[in-house]
Each structure stands twice: as structure tokens, then as C-alpha cells.
Design a protein that fits this description.
- This protein is mostly beta strands.
- It contains 3 helices and 14 strands.
- The chain has one domain: YmcC-like fold.
- A hairpin with a 5-residue loop joins strand 13 and strand 14.
């Protein structure tokens, strides 16, 4: 696993969507280039918006696998029973890059043990970089929330603060407001509710850390990373009100370890889960 040091941010919060349901390694992880005639290497595809902090070129692919989190981030057995099953493997792939009116939309697929959904990232050459809320990299939580639909989404800020395509700054915000509603899934017909959600997201740059690689293609190596802490506060309204009062969780704190040219190589989420990058294919 990628060994992470302790932090004042260490807590065990619940997943953002739980409020709604009931009521690097460019060189280290890059695939070897295919043999080319006369020693020519394949041309590299352009990265969306010139971003190297999370390089989004067509065909780029990241594979994550779960590992045990450090003791201070582990949940109790009772808490674990309330969280979704952890996927054995998560594969993210860039399947489309389209630029229109100065903004680029990157389409990605996320495969969780054979269950696939499509998500997006929007970026501009000016530095805006917004990851969709159903994407793994939004909060380090794999899989989309089924039975919930978001509408009228408003974003303020940026998921990553960038300059010349690289992470920069000490802190920034990535806030979101939206309307939500239940949508029918399967044959069950629960009370269909709706409401609003406000998500206050505050990124903080933490001291750099060196991680020890013990699984994946480069086991045994050490990698220097940029560490981000993500603090999240939620405000949710529910109509009609559920029979039992639902309280927003306390401050949620997740962590991301980045390597420029590769992206997040380790993630700790609000499930008490930890994922590490075991393979990166760069085109």
C-alpha cells in the first residue's frame, strides 16, 4: 500500500450520498511503448486543457485497488455494515475529449467490478477544472448513487486549482448547489422525495509525503506526492420530511495523494476506505 502519515484531518465520516438514499508515476506506471519501426516512439496524445496534474488524453486508463486504511481511519463493524460494498477493482478510462466555445468536456467510464457508468470532467485553458459529482475523483467514492437524480447543478470554484496545468496554491473551494429527487429503480415503490443539497468543499494543501509502493507494477519503490485534504460540509432539505429526523454528518474529510503526470495515486474516502493506483496506461 501507499503508506500515509497521520494528520489532524483523520476522521471517519459517512458518504455524502448517504444523506439522500434513505430519505508519479507517469514513468513508473506508464505501459511500455509498443515496438515501432526504426526506433520511433508513438506520438503522445494532447492532454485536455494542457493539464498534467491529472492528464486526460484519449485512452488514458487508471486502475485502483483497495487496501486497508491506517488504524485511525478504520470504521467499526457497525459502521461498515451501513456502507456500500468495496469494489475489488476500479478502472477509469478517458473515452472522449470534445472542445466547444472555449471549454473542454472529457468523458470517462468508471468500471467497478463490471458495473460501468459514464461521467465527465470540464476544464478550460484558463484553469477551471470541475469534476462531476458522480466521478470517483470528486470525493474518492467509487460508484454512482442509484435512485437519486440531480438537477439545476450550480458550481462555484474548481475541483483542482491549477496554473500551467499543475497544482498550485495553498487552499481553494469547489462548492456545489443542486436540486435532487428520487427516481424509480426496479420494482420497489418507496416514498418518492425531493429537496435541495448544498455542498461546501474546501481543499487544503498538506505537506508532501513519500509513499512506499507495496502493490502494483512498481512495488518496492518510493514516490514523492502532493497531498490534498478535502473538507466537506453538507446542507440538505427533504420533502416530504421523513418520519425520523436526519442529521447532517459532521465535517467530512477525504485525502488525495497526487503525482504530476499521473494524477491521484492514493485516495482515502469518507467510507473509511483506501484505494491505491496499481496501473496507469498513458497514451
Amino acid at each position: 500500500m501507499w503508506e500515509a502519515t497521520g494528520s489532524a484531518y483523520n476522521r471517519c465520516p459517512v458518504k455524502l450520498s448517504a444523506l439522500l438514499v434513505p430519505a508519479v508515476l507517469t514513468a513508473a506506471f506508464a505501459s511500455p511503448a509498443l515496438a515501432q519501426p526504426r526506433g520511433k516512439a508513438p506520438a503522445k496524445l494532447p492532454k485536455a486543457c494542457g493539464v498534467t496534474a491529472l492528464p486526460l488524453a484519449m485512452g488514458n486508463e487508471w486502475t485502483y485497488e483497495p487496501v486497508p486504511p491506517p488504524p485511525e481511519r478504520q470504521l467499526t463493524e457497525a459502521q461498515i455494515r451501513l456502507t456500500p460494498v468495496e469494489p475489488k477493482k476500479l478502472v477509469i478510462k478517458v473515452t472522449g475529449v470534445e472542445t466547444k466555445d472555449g471549454a473542454t468536456t472529457v468523458t470517462l467510464t468508471e468500471d467497478h467490478d463490471g458495473r460501468v457508468h459514464t461521467t465527465t470532467i470540464r476544464c478550460t485553458a484558463g484553469g477551471t477544472f470541475q469534476i462531476a459529482p458522480d466521478a470517483f475523483w470528486f470525493a474518492g467514492e467509487p460508484g454512482k448513487t442509484y435512485g437519486i437524480e440531480l438537477e439545476d447543478i450550480e458550481r462555484k470554484g474548481s475541483t483542482l486549482n491549477l496554473a500551467a496545468g499543475k497544482l498550485t496554491g495553498l487552499e481553494w473551494r469547489d462548492d456545489m448547489k443542486a436540486k435532487w429527487k428520487h427516481v424509480a429503480t426496479g420494482k420497489l415503490a418507496p416514498t418518492m422525495r425531493k429537496g435541495t443539497i448544498e455542498v461546501s468543499r474546501h481543499y487544503v494543501v498538506l505537506p508532501e509525503e513519500t509513499l512506499d509502493v507495496t502493490i502494483g507494477e512498481r512495488a518496492g519503490q518510493q514516490v514523492k506526492t502532493a497531498k490534498l485534504g478535502l473538507e466537506t460540509l453538507l446542507k440538505v432539505t427533504i420533502e416530504p420530511a421523513p418520519p425520523n429526523e436526519l442529521k447532517a454528518p459532521p465535517l467530512l474529510v477525504n485525502f488525495f495523494w497526487f503525482v504530476d503526470g499521473t494524477g491521484p495515486i492514493q485516495v482515502q474516502n469518507s467510507y473509511g476506505q483506501q484505494y491505491v493506483l496499481t496501473k496507469f496506461v498513458s497514451n
